[in-house]
């Protein structure tokens, strides 16, 4: 209490305000809608005398309008909180990424999307693209930038390829990386990815099974991007043309062609 009294009545305000502004800045996405709600309610009541002689129907109509406004602002707060949670899920990449809306998907039989946004001027060819949502995947690269839009070639597109290694999960040991097998992940089109460069016996000995993840391990991409998820093992079976090799089908966590927005790594970590 003594410290509070000193802060309030003895120390000058420029001393006690140190550090407040940066902290408040972090809370703007949440505090701003709440601030709007408070102002709207205050203006409604301050602009009217204490005794309200309007008909009940008019008051009820105003109350309904206020409730609807509060409801809309609450939805905005929820959306901002969701965006903040998704940024946190980027695992440290949020400093290097910008978000862009998906404006369309390829219609020529290829797996690709078109993105747009206010920061499209920062987008360059070959920049990596990550999915949005609760699980962040490495999904492709920028292949062209034209005006206010850019094209993304997805990893599922036929001919796309990256390398990575497996991560297995168990209740007792948790996540275990298996760096002994370097998997070449190739796109097959229609949202599909496959690994077919590994001997079936090697895959069996390593204990790879459906549900395991494949994460990026590719010198083509920056060091900071290594370890990002590529896809999840859906099935393992002998390769039709070479039965001694395994055909490992991978699936993305969600359909890339149906994403609403994506992250583009416009700055290098």
Strand order in space, largest sheet: 1-2-5-4-3-12
In the CATH scheme, what's the topology name of the largest domain?
Answer: Thrombin, subunit H
CATH class of the largest domain: Mainly Beta
**Which segments are poorly predicted (pLDDT under 50) over 5 or more consecutive residues?**
1-11, 13-28
- The termini sit apart by 45 Å
What general form does the structure show? elongated
Number of helices in the DSSP assignment = 6
Question: What does the model show?
Answer:
With 269 residues, the protein is an alpha+beta fold. It has helices at residues 2-9, 13-16, 20-26, 28-46, 56-89, 200-205; strands spanning 97-105, 112-116, 128-131, 138-146, 149-154, 161-170, 174-189, 192-195, 213-216, 229-238, 246-251, 261-265. It has 3 domains: 2-89, no CATH class; 94-155 and 257-265, Beta Barrel (Thrombin, subunit H), CATH 2.40.10; 161-251, Beta Barrel (Thrombin, subunit H). Helices cover 29% and strands 33% of the residues. The strands form 2 sheets. The chain has a 6-stranded antiparallel barrel with strand order 1-2-5-4-3-12. A 6-stranded antiparallel barrel has the order 6-7-8-11-10-9. Helix 4 runs antiparallel to helix 5. The radius of gyration is 26 Å and the shape is elongated. It starts with a helix and ends with a strand.
């Amino acid at each position: 209490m003594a410290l509070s009294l000193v802060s309030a009545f003895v120390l000058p305000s420029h001393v006690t305000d140190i550090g407040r502004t940066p902290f408040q800045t972090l809370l703007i996405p949440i505090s701003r809608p709440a601030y709007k709600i408070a102002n709207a309610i205050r203006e409604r009541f301050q602009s009217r005398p204490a005794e309200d002689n309007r008909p009940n129907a008019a008051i009820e109509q105003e109350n309904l309008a206020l409730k609807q406004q509060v409801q809309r602002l609450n939805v905005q707060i929820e959306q901002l909180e969701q965006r903040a949670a998704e940024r946190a899920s980027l695992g440290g990449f949020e400093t290097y990424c910008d978000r862009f809306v998906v404006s369309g998907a390829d219609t020529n039989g290829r797996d690709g999307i078109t993105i747009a946004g206010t920061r499209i001027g920062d987008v360059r060819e070959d920049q990596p693209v990550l999915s949005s949502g609760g699980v962040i995947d490495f999904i492709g690269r920028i292949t062209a930038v034209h005006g206010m839009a850019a094209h993304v070639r997805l990893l599922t597109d036929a001919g796309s390829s990256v390398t990575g290694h497996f991560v297995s999960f168990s209740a007792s040991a948790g996540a275990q990386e298996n760096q002994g097998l370097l998997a070449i992940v190739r796109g097959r089109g229609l949202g599909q990815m496959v690994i077919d460069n590994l001997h079936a016996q090697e895959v069996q000995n390593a204990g790879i099974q459906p549900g395991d993840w494949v994460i990026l391990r590719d010198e083509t991409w920056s060091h900071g991007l290594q370890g990002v998820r590529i896809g999840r093992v859906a099935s393992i079976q002998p390769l039709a043309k070479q039965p001694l090799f395994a055909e490992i089908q991978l699936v993305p966590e969600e359909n890339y062609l149906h994403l609403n927005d994506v992250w583009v790594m416009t700055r290098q970590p």
